[in-house]
Sequence to fold (397 residues):
Amino acid sequence: MKPLQEVRSGIIVIICIFIFFKVKRNKRPTNLSTISAEVDDNDAITEESPQFDLDIIRAATGNFSEANKLGQGGFGPVFRGKLPNGTEIAVKRLSQNSGQGEYEFKNEARLLSRLQHRNLVKLLGYCLEGIERLLVYEFVPNASLEKFIFDPLKRVLLDWDTRYKIITGIARGLLYLHEDSRLRIIHRDLKASNILLDMDMNAKVSDFGTARLFEIDQTQADTSQIMGTYGYMAPEYVLRGHYSLKSDVFSFGVLVLEIVSGRRNLEPRSGQDMELLIGHVWKNWREGNISGIVDPAVTSGYTPNILRCIHIGLLCVQQNEATRPSMSSVVLMLNSQSVTLSVPTEPAFLMNMSPINNSDISSGYDSTSNATKADPSGNKADAFSINEASITDPYPR
Ligand SMILES: Nc1ncnc2c1ncn2[C@@H]1O[C@H](COP(=O)(O)OP(=O)(O)OP(=O)(O)O)[C@@H](O)[C@H]1O
Fold:
C-alpha cells in the first residue's frame, strides 16, 4: 500500500508542478517588454529593436547629406538612406536641443520597435552613440498626407476611394494604439504631416515622439507641458492641459474633415477673423450645404459614404469629450453602414481667437508645415473662446 501511496503523491506533485508552470507561462507580465505578446492578428511579433552602428547609418545616408534630407521636424531633420541589404530607410536625427532626453528617446525606440501594425510606420531600430541619437524607420515612399491633401495639384490625385482608404487606415492605426495592445498609447500629435502614405496610398501613422504610455487603468492625465499642434489639439488639452484617448479622437476628427474638404482646420488669413474648418463644416452641415464642405476635387458626387465621414468627423470634434466616440466605435461606424450614428452636438470650434494668438500663429509657421506647434514650455492659450451657438436643426436638409 505504501509504495502505491508514494506513487500517487508523486503523480500529484508532478501535476501540480506542471499546472504551476503552465499558469506562469500564460500569465502576462505588465511591463513594456510584453507588448509584442499583445499584438492582434494584423501584427507580427518583433524582437528587441536592433541598435544600429553609426557608421552604417552614415554610409546609408551619404553622411546625412543635404541631398538626402526628407524634411525637418520638430525634433530634428529626417534623412533618406539605403542599408547594405537594400532596405530603404528614413533616419530621424534628433537635435541636441530638441528637448528629448535619453529617456524619451529610448521610450520611443522601444515602444515603436515592439509595436507593429500595417497602419503604423515601422521603427527598424535606433542608434545612440556619443551625442548622436537616431531613429531608423522604414522608408514610406509617398511622403505625408499634408503634402497631398493641401496641395492644389496633388489633391486632385486623391479620389474619394483613396481618401476613404486613408481615413479607415488612420482609424485602424489609432485603434491599435488605443486599444489593441496591452499598453494604451495616446499619440498626442496626430496631424496630416504625421500620416505617411505608402506606395498604395495606405495611411501609416508616424511620429510617436509625443506618445505617452499608459497602463490599462491610467487612460488620462493632466500635464503642465502642452505638446501638439494648434488646429489639431482638443480644447481640454489646450485650455487645461488635460489629455486622454478622446484628445486623439478629436485630432482624428479634424483630420477626417480636412481629408473630406481638402482644407486645413487652421488656415491663417491675415487681417481677417479666423474661421476654423470645423466651424465651417458645422455651419454648412446644419444648413444642408454639403457642397460647401466637400473638396471640389472630389468628383464622385456626395455619396452616403462621404456624408457618413463628415458625420463621424463631427462626432469626433464635439466639444464635450465624453460624447466623442472611442476609436473602436469609429472603426465600427466606418465599417458598417448599418450602425446608426448619433446626432453630433456642437463642435469645439474655437472662434474669435485673440490678436495675440493670431500673430503667434502666423509667425510660428515653419517652411515645411503650416501647422503650428504648441509651446512646449506649457504656456496655455487662455485667449481661446468657445462659440456658444445652439443647435436648432442638426440634420442637413
Ligand atoms: N518614415 C518616413 N518615410 C518617408 N518620409 C518620412 C518618414 N518620416 C518622416 N518623413 C518625412 O520627413 C518629414 C519630417 O518628419 P517629422 O515627423 O520629423 O516632422 P513633422 O511631422 O513634419 O513635424 P513634427 O516634428 O512637428 O511632427 C516629414 O514631412 C516626412 O515627409
Notes: The first strand starts at residue 69 and ends at 73. The pocket of adenosine-5'-triphosphate is lined by residues 70-71, 73-75, 78, 90, 92, 121, 137, 139-140, 143-144, 189, 193-194, 196, 206-207, 368-369, 373 (CB under 6 Å).
